[in-house]
# Entry
Amino acid sequence: MQVIRWQETATPEEQHLRQQMQQQGLTPYAWSNGPDEYYAVHSHAYQKILYCVCGSISFILPDKRDETGAMITICLNAGDGLVLPKGTRHSAQVGLDGVTCLEAAQS
# Structure
């Protein structure tokens, strides 16, 4: 699993993130959710590459624990990315302002 944090001071533009993903040979698509939407625990049969375009989303990993025994949560804000390996069980909680993401499957 890899978390890619946005390092620029300017807010990311969807087109810039899309081009970045396409340069990696990916075919991204956009999706959005309103505030507080929740996805139950599930996994994918492919490696998921995701970038948060605007808003925020948190990925909860029920099978991964920190040193205190709490489930690992990865919070993504605008520009942040996540490489989620094939078969990784996760749920997701959209932030208070909703979220728009770019996502692509990588085999």
The longest strand covers residues 47-65. The chain has one domain: 2-106.
